[in-house]
From TrEMBL, chain A:
Gene: Sptlc2
GO terms under biological process: ceramide biosynthetic process; sphingosine biosynthetic process
Alphabetical UniProt keywords: Acyltransferase, Endoplasmic reticulum, Lipid metabolism, Membrane, Pyridoxal phosphate, Sphingolipid metabolism, Transferase, Transmembrane, Transmembrane helix
Protein's name in the database: serine C-palmitoyltransferase
Domain of life: Eukaryota
Cofactor entry: pyridoxal 5'-phosphate
GO molecular function, one term: pyridoxal phosphate binding
Pathway assigned in UniProt: Sphingolipid metabolism; Lipid metabolism; sphingolipid metabolism
Membrane-spanning residues: 68-87
One of the record's GO cellular component terms: endoplasmic reticulum membrane
UniProtKB/TrEMBL annotation, chain B:
Membrane topology: Multi-pass membrane protein
Keyword check for Transmembrane: yes
UniProt xrefs under InterPro entries: ORMDL
Residue stretches spanning the membrane: 23-43, 101-119
Subunit record text: Ceramide-sensitive subunit of the serine palmitoyltransferase (SPT) complex, which is also composed of SPTLC1, SPTLC2/3 and SPTSSA/B.
Species per Swiss-Prot/TrEMBL record: Rhynochetos jubatus (kagu)
Function: Plays an essential role in the homeostatic regulation of sphingolipid de novo biosynthesis by modulating the activity of the serine palmitoyltransferase (SPT) in response to ceramide levels. When complexed to SPT, the binding of ceramides to its N-terminus stabilizes a conformation that block SPT substrate entry, hence preventing SPT catalytic activity. Through this mechanism, maintains ceramide levels at sufficient concentrations for the production of complex sphingolipids, but which prevents the accumulation of ceramides to levels that trigger apoptosis.
Listed name of the protein: ORML1 protein
Cellular location(s): Membrane
GO CC, any one term: endoplasmic reticulum membrane
Annotated keywords: Membrane, Transmembrane, Transmembrane helix
GO biological process: regulation of ceramide biosynthetic process; sphingolipid metabolic process
Amino acid sequence: AERVQRSGAGGMERPQPRANGCSGAAHGALRNGYVRGLSAPDTQINHIVHNGGLYKRPFNEAFEETPMLVAVLTYVGYGVLTLFGYLRDFMRYWKIEKCQNTTEREEQKDFVPLYQDFENFYNRNLYMRIRDSWNRPICSVPGAKMDMMERVSHDYNWTFTYTGKVIKDVINMGSYNYLGFAQNAGPCKEAAAKILSQYGVGVCSTRQEMGNLEKHEELERLVARFLGVESAMAYGMGFATNSMNIPALVGKGCLILSDELNHASLVLGARLSGATIRIFKHNNMQSLEKLLKDAIVHGQPRTRRPWKKILILVEGVFSMEGSIVRLPEVIALKKKYKSYLYLDEAHSIGALGPGGRGVVEYFGLNPEDVDVMMGTFTKSFGASGGYIAGKKELIDYLRTYSHSAVYATSLSPPVVEQIITSMKCIMGEDGTTVGKARVQQLAENTRYFRRRLKELGFIIYGNEDSPVVPLMLYMPAKIGAFGREMLKRNIGVVVVGFPATPIIESRARFCLSAAHTREMLDTALKEINEVGDLLQLKYSRHRLVPLLDRPFDETTYEETED
Amino acid sequence: MNVGVAHSEVNPNTRVMNSRGMWLTYALGVGMLHVVLLSIPFFSVPVAWTLTNVIHNLGMYVFLHAVKGTPFETPDQGKARLLTHWEQLDYGVQFTSSRKFFTISPIILYFLASFYTKYDPTHFILNTTSLLTVLIPKLPQLHGVRIFGINKY
C-alpha cells in the first residue's frame, strides 16, 4: 500500500489537471478517485482535484461504477418482477385473484377511463410489495433516537394494522437532523415556548398584509449576519421558497442552466418561470462551460438575440448523491461568462464549513460572489421554512414580487424563535460553545462513518465531507430487505429505488447528525456490517485499508490496496 | 417513490435501454431462451432455432411496440401515454445506439436461424414474417403511425 499525502493547492511536479477535476488518469492507475495498483513512488499521481489553485482543501468525490454482474442481476430482478406483475394483473382481470386496488365502478366502465391502468403498474406490483419501508409513523421527536409505532400487514402491505406496541429507541439514520437541534428540551425549546405564550401559533396573514411580525425582521437580520450578506428574506416553506421565487427572478427570454440532479423544487420553479432550461451533467464543469459558451455564442434559439439573463442553478450538497458542488469552479465560470448563480444550500447550511456557515465557508469563498443564496431551516436548525439571501436590491425586489410574500402565510412565531435560538447557538452568541462543538462533532461523525463504511467494503457515493451518505443496494429485492432488516435491528433508514433513482442505482441514504454519539455510530456500523454480509452488499472493489485512528485535521492520508 | 425525486429526468423509460449492462442482459436472456428450447428433447435443432427467433420477436413486439405509456406516473402530464416504448426511446431521436442495437439483433438472430434451419421453405416463411413484424415498426417513417387505428388509445 502506498501512502499518498493529500493537501490543497500546489503540486507543480504533478501532471496538469483537467478542468472537470480529473487529474491525469492516462495510464489507468486512477479510476473513480481511488488509486489501483502499486506504481512507483515518483510516478505517483496525486488524485486530488486542484484546478490551478482554486481549491484550498482536498476535494474527494467518488461514484464507483456499478459492477457488471450486479447490473445484469438487477435487470433480471426487474424483469422477473415485471413478468410476475403481468401475471398478477391477468389474474386480477379475470377475477381469479381479488383486486385490492381502487377501480372504477361497474357503471362507469363504458365511459372513457379517468386513469390509465398501466401507469399504476409499478405502484401496485413493485412498490406495494415493499411499501412497509416508507411512511413509517414516528411517535417521538426525530432526534438521534426515536420511537416508532409498530405496524403489521396481513395482506402483503395492502393494509396495515397497528399492533399497539411502540418500538422504542430506534437509532435514527434518516432524519435531516444534521446539528441535532431536533430536541424537545433545552434552550431552543424554552425560548420557543416563551414566544408561543406571547405570540400564539398562527400568523393568519401573508407577509405583505398583516403577517409581518417584528420577529420576522429580527430573523432576517440574523440570517443576513450569519451568512455574511447584505439582506435576507424568510419564507414559510422550503419547497415553496424555490418554486415561488425562481419565477420572480427569471422569465421568458432567460436561460436556466440546471444541474442534472437538482431537487424537484428547483425543477418546478424553473418550469414555472417559463425560461429555457438546459441541463448540464452532474457537477461536471466541462459540461457547464460548454453550455455557457454555446448560449453566449448562439443566443436564443431562433432569433439569435442575446439571453436576457443566464442563471446557474446548483445545490450545495445534493441530497441523493452526497456530492458537494464544485463551487470555486462554478464561481470562476460565472464570473468569466457574466451569468448569475443561484445556490440552494438546503442540506449544506449548518452542516458544512468550520463555523457551520455552509458550502461557501467550506471552500473559503466570498459570499458576495453568489448572487442568490437560498437555504432551508428544516435540516440543520430543527425548524421549518426557507430563506433567500443576497444583495439588498435583490431582496427588496423579492419582498414586493415574490409569490410567497404575496400569497403564502409567513412563518409561525415559535418556529422563528427556534431558528433564532439555534442560529445564535451555532454562531456562539448565546455565550456557550455548544454550537461550535456540534459542528465539529458532525464533521467528525461524517469522516468516521464514511471511512468505516468504505473499509467494510460497501459502495458509498459522494464527497468525503458530506453528511449525506448513500449506500448502494442496486437490486430491487434488497431495497425492501435492507429496510426491514435494519428495522429489526432497531435502526431506521431511508431507502430509495427506481424510478426515483436511475434503474441500476437504488440506494439507502444515511443522514448523519451531531446528536449521534460514537457508540450509536458503532452500533449502527455493526448492524450494517451484519446486514451487509447477510444480503451480500459489499460490492466495492477498492477497499480502503483500515487506518489507525487519526485526529480530525486538514491533511489526511489514504492507503488503498487492491 | 416517484419519478423525479433524485434526478430531473422526466421519463426514465427513455434512458433504460442505454443503461450499463442492459444490452448484455438482453443478449444473455436470448441465449438462455435458446438453451432452454434446445434442452427440450423433442425439438430438433432447426425447430429450436425457429422457435427462438419467433418467441424473441413476439416478446420484442409486445414489449417494445404494443405496450404504450409508462408503468409509473411521469411529471410531464402524460406526454408519453400514447407512445410505445420504442417511440419513447431517447425522446424520439432516431438512429441512436440503442435503436441501432435493437434493430440489428433480430436481424442477426434471423441469419442464425436461417443457417441452422438449412433454408427450409416452411421455416423460411415463418422466420421472415416474424422478422418483418419486428422490423417494420422500427422504421422512422412509422414513428407514431397506427395502421387501421389499431392500438391507438
